Amino acid sequence: MEQRKHPRYPFQCPARFSASHIASVQGQVINLSLQGCCLRTQDAVKPGHALQVQLQASTGEPPIQINRAMVQWALAPYVGVEFLTLSQDNQQRIQQVIRELEQQPVQPI
Prior knowledge:
Elements: E1 9-19, E2 22-33, E3 36-40, E4 50-55, E5 64-75, E6 78-85, H1 88-102
Antiparallel strand pairs: 1-2, 1-4, 2-3, 3-6, 4-5, 5-6
């Protein structure tokens, strides 16, 4: 059975990501944890690809910027991404989203 450090919560928001081999493309966050997310995208990314990711978690606020993320798994059209490098401010913003999700009746997955 898979063991994670942090629970994942169902959460949807627009996302943009880029890598050395692809220009900035759009995707959709499907779930979120403190250290990563699952994205739905039509673009080809593979495990081991390093990405820069922007999550538009709140309307009217700038996107949450993940400076470096790593694709851990890919099963089209989904990819699992681990957050590796982000500013303290952006980490706090993700923590705030998670706190809000913890207050909802939806269970972690």
